[in-house]
């Protein structure tokens, strides 16, 4: 069963950009390993070098919106977002009919719950259940309903396809940014200053402060410092919080674009030419720009 419940981020820190950095070094293999796995790598290997280059040139032309044969960070960032949003839309379009059980063009809260949970859920906002497991389930359902209501922005009952996309893929829809930030602040911002410190980010993971940090804590600290805390002030502001909880946001896409240009730009003009890209074709393939290689296997009229 496809479940849309968003679980606690404390158990999901490592889901965001796992292994994107090894120590202080960027790991280009991360991208293929996480999102494609062995099957994706095998598919890429099936293409001859000539075919890889030909398809890469097609992608570069699509990204180069002003047709000046140079890719800017802005063009690359917008392309990354476009690719992911296309996949999210395709997923929403595929699943929407399953949830719209009465075929009226909208997914109601009851329809959603019947498909996902197999029964209609009545929520009590005020009563805290004594059983910890039941209370945890009630809390998750309340968060789910809140996200559903936030996505239902047109005032008419039920979710349209666009609203269903926002509900199921909030990180791909700009209108959901405020909800996403409010949600993470409610869970992590213990001092209510609108920022998330490293202590708040890690949470209460050690009962004894004198204990040696676990490997998980070390890895999460590195991720906080090197991937999310872009201004290195020891805390996450709004944009940095989005980079954490909505890794496909514009700010995240732009960071990846800037990284690629830094790695591949040989003449120092802060842009990428076709020649520079083809000279570093494997780095470009192992990035969000090509959706970790997937873009070499689709027809680009689809985007």
What is the structure about, briefly put?
By secondary structure, the protein is mainly alpha-helical.
Q: Specify the biggest β-sheet.
A: 2 strands, antiparallel
| Largest sheet, spatial ordering of strands | 1-2
Radius of gyration: 21 Å
Helix and strand pattern: EEHHHEHHHHHEHHEHHEHH
Number of separate strands: 6
The unreliable regions are 1-41, 290-303
Q: What separation lies between the terminal Cα atoms? A: 29 Å
Mean pLDDT: 76
Q: Beta fraction of the residues? A: under 5%
Overall body shape: globular
Keywords: Calcium, Chaperone, Endoplasmic reticulum, Glycoprotein, Metal-binding, Repeat, Signal
Subcellular location: Endoplasmic reticulum lumen
GO molecular function, one term: calcium ion binding
Subunit structure: Interacts with PCSK6 (immature form including the propeptide); probably involved in the maturation and the secretion of PCSK6.
Would you write up a description of this structure?
The chain is mainly alpha-helical. It contains 14 helices and 6 strands. The chain has a two-stranded antiparallel sheet with strand order 1-2. It has a two-stranded antiparallel ribbon with strand order 3-6. Strands 4-5 form a two-stranded antiparallel ribbon. Strand 1 and strand 2 (about 25) form a beta hairpin. The protein starts with 20 loop residues before the first strand and ends in an 18-residue tail after the last helix. Residues about 1-40 and about 290-303 have low confidence and may be disordered. It is found in: Endoplasmic reticulum lumen. One of its GO terms (cellular component) is endoplasmic reticulum lumen. Belongs to the CREC family. Interacts with PCSK6 (immature form including the propeptide); probably involved in the maturation and the secretion of PCSK6.
